[in-house]
Amino acid sequence: MTLYLARLAPSSQLTMRYVLQDAADRLDFEDMNIEEIPWHQLQPEDVVALVATLREDGYAPNTSSLYVNAVRGVMNEAWRMSLISQEHLLKMRSVKGIAGTRLSQGRNLKRTLIRDLMEVCAADPRPQGLRDAAIIGILYGSGMRKSESVNLDLAQVDFTERSLCVTAKGNKQLIKYAPAWAFAKLDAWLELRRSQLKEGETDDPFLFNRIRRGSHITRERITKHAIYYIARQRGAQVGVKIMPHDFRRSFITRVIEEHDLSIAQKLAHHSNIQTTANYDVRDDNERRRAVDRFDL
């Protein structure tokens, strides 16, 4: 189990540890530390029972698949360590999660709303105003995930090409592009940050800093939780509940609207085009108008 978690990105380790702990509790290992559980002794019927409990508790198909994939990952490590046979591994892999899909709960952030967000940031005289505008601009303008934005370094940014080299899921390096207005917001933030440096101090290697009360720009990298807080806080200022991933959803939806699904897939860096299609969160009115055009 420890080896499986070690292979994951740091951003995924905490989530999968929680998933494995909950899975262990559901498999009657609640009194054991997950590192001590004999995962290699699990049988296919144990995973089937796990899926059944998730179904009974109303878990969504995607969440069920997350649990099954976590157990599979641990079993893969057990096979690599010669604790189980290949036949046993294949049987474990044959167990599926809950079938079905759920409608996306994401929000499509219209351009007018993005402008409103930029305006509330511009009206904030604190350093947070410029920083938050830059973060929102990069998230919405490039479609990157919040974990990718948190880990961005200055060395990964090409201001001439308006590109950002990010380390994405699966430890893959990808090039993302953002529009000129987003880079203008980023440049304004970095210029302010540099102006706060004392003589002889060098600039920070990362893009976004934590800012403490009193508008003190720390020399610390921003956290994912802070990105979540920024989205919620700025959304509340314009009267909308916003989650960080809504910026990515809206980016992909807009590319689908203005170009096509294939271009959106490439810009989102999805290996499966169906994943891209699932991000399409155009509202019901737009779908209804599309159907209404089918006149006799």
UniProtKB/TrEMBL annotation:
Pfam families, per this entry? Answer: Phage_integrase
Which residue ranges does the record assign to the Core-binding (CB) domain? 1-79
> What are the recorded Gene Ontology BP terms?
chromosome segregation; DNA integration; DNA recombination
Q: Which GO terms describe its molecular function?
A: DNA binding
Q: Which residues form the Tyr recombinase domain?
A: 104-293
Q: Which InterPro entries match?
A: CB, DNA_brk_join_enz, Integrase-like_cat_sf, Integrase_catalytic, Integrase_recombinase_N, Tyrosine_recombinase_XerCD
Query: Membrane spanning segments where?
Result: none
Instruction: Output the PROSITE patterns linked to this UniProt entry.
Output: CB (PS51900), TYR_RECOMBINASE (PS51898)
UniProt keywords (A-Z) are: Chromosome partition, DNA integration, DNA recombination, DNA-binding
Q: From the Swiss-Prot or TrEMBL record, give the protein name.
A: Tyrosine-type recombinase/integrase
Lineage, please? Bacteria, Pseudomonadati, Pseudomonadota, Gammaproteobacteria, Pseudomonadales
